[in-house]
Specification:
FAD/NAD-bd_sf, 5-stranded parallel sheet, mitochondrion, globular, binds flavin-adenine dinucleotide, 12 helices
Length: about 450
């Protein structure tokens, strides 16, 4: 029950919030030139860049969590290829030195008064604000969850509390259906719901259980993947490996005591289907961060309403946004955050000089589609869904080198490059590898 209680206390990334922050709160200064709300991938990397631009004493980050996680590696944690411990470091260790860490939760943003209110009742004012609050997981929108996670045979790579349950369910698999889901909402890293399917297939083959398994991917989407070039390769793989893909199927209920999952057919309202499972991987519905949604900064759907070219807020010019909390019309990934940090850094430096931002974000995002324990298809694309590949090779092909990039190189780039404000995405390398042509 303790794990379940923690899951109920989850904030958007699924990271439990520690209640022990009083000392830091008591000393919180009340005004900052640059206030960053959210200390995840976008928040920490922008605070490192803002420290360089404005000096540490002028920057503060509001973030309640004691731990900072590199979420992309949870795909491999759920498949037993990495440990959960390797995915996390203390927030204190990633906070740029000298930058003020306000260990609280933002409760309200008031852009008309340039203030933010925290859950301990403090008010912090700012001259400039960067919103980096991520998105909200909604396990509770599926009937039977999150309490269903108390049962075995079910897991989710999407939260720190449930990712190891995926690995346990996979190891315990004997025979029957292994079911993987994709919800009827926008998600972060849209490839992750199916990456764990390919890894599970590989694991069951390795352990001699594959003949006794039906592997089923039930997705709400009308496609396997949004970008045709990569979807074509993935369709070849699912056919070769005998993986069953059912489109427009949305998980609405889990009866964990009976190991049953209920799906609705999105093309035939009211039609439902019950699937028995021996293993279930749930990708939860997701939505806007609730603080953003409840503020004047939101668009109609609740996402932070920013200019897609320069990440400046559309109505409040001293407010900027980055990452999963925004309405940028691109896939929500850490790779997108990296590219956005370089753009946002340039935008803010121009705004501070009363100049017009001139660097334009092309929507670059990337999804390393892990297709086994040693292969990856490295999908990279832009706002228009056009491939924007870094390497001068066909990245729609499964490659070992790309697996090493995902498993070994990218975590280093994250901890030592992105979070220190030194990595702004592979754009310059792409230009170099393509002799300036891309
Ligand atoms: C299973 C999985 C696999 C993934 N795979 C990949 C991948 O292969 N490649 C890739 O590029 N990306 C991947 N991602 C996506 C990537 O992790 C996210 O897109 C990225 O972390 C977004 O960064 P962010 O700063 O917008 O949000 P986050 O990193 O989620 O940070 C948001 C921060 O805001 C804080 N916060 C929330 N609410 C409040 C509040 N009220 N007050 C104060 N702080 C608050 C949170 O504590 C958190 O620290 C994956 C994600 C998951 C879960």
């Amino acid at each position: 029950m303790a794990a379940l209680r923690r899951l109920r206390q989850c904030h958007p990334t699924g990271i439990a919030i520690s209640p022990f922050h009083t000392a830091s709160r008591a000393f919180a200064k009340q005004h900052y030139k640059m206030l960053v709300v959210g200390g995840g991938s976008g928040g920490i990397s922008m605070s490192a860049r803002m420290k360089r631009m404005l000096g540490a004493e002028n920057v503060a980050v509001v973030e309640p969590s004691e731990m900072h996680y590199y979420q992309p590696i949870w795909t491999l944690v759920g498949a037993g290829a990495k440990t959960l411990t390797s995915s996390g470091r203390s927030t204190a260790s990633v906070m740029p030195s000298g930058v003020k860490w306000v260990k609280s939760k933002v409760q309200e943003i008031n852009p008309d008064t340039n203030t933010v209110r925290t859950d301990d009742g403090n008010e912090i004012s700012y001259e400039y604000l960067i919103v980096a609050l991520g998105l909200q997981l909604h396990f509770e929108k599926i009937k039977g969850l999150p309490e269903g996670f108390e049962h075995p045979k079910i897991g989710s790579n999407y939260s720190v509390q449930t990712v190891e349950k995926t690995w346990k369910a996979l190891q315990d698999f004997k025979e029957g259906n292994a079911v993987f889901t994709f919800p009827n909402t926008p998600v972060k890293c849209a490839g992750a719901p199916q990456k764990i399917m390919y890894l599970s297939d590989a694991f069951l083959r390795k352990t001699g259980k594959r003949a006794k398994a039906n592997i089923i991917y039930n997705t709400s989407l009308p496609v396997l993947f949004g970008i045709k070039k990569y979807a074509d390769s993935l369709w070849d793989i699912v056919k070769q490996r005998d993986l069953q893909v059912n489109l427009r199927q949305n998980l609405i209920e889990v009866r964990a005591d009976k190991q049953e999952a209920v799906f609705e057919n999105l093309d035939k309202p009211g039609e439902t289907k019950v699937l028995e499972y021996e293993m279930l991987h749930v990708t939860p519905p997701m939505g806007p961060n609730l603080v953003v949604q409840g503020s004047p900064l939101a668009d109609e759907a609740g996402w932070l309403d920013v200019n897609k070219d320069n990440l400046q807020h559309k109505r409040y010019p001293n407010v900027f946004g980055i990452g999963d909390c925004t309405n940028l019309p691109t896939a929500k990934t850490g790779a997108a955050v990296a590219a956005q940090t370089a753009i946002l850094n340039s935008t803010i430096s121009k705004v501070l000089k009363n100049e017009k931002p001139d660097k334009i974000y092309d929507g670059y995002t990337s999804c390393p589609l892990v297709t086994s324990y040693n292969t990856v298809i490295l999908a990279e694309f832009d706002y228009n869904g056009q491939p924007l590949e870094t390497f001068p090779i066909n990245q729609a092909k499964e490659r070992r080198t790309m697996y090493h990039m995902k498993a070994d190189v990218m975590p280093h780039l994250y901890w030592h490059g992105l979070l220190r404000g030194l990595w702004g995405g592979p754009g310059p390398y792409r230009k170099l590898f393509h002799l300036g042509m891309k």
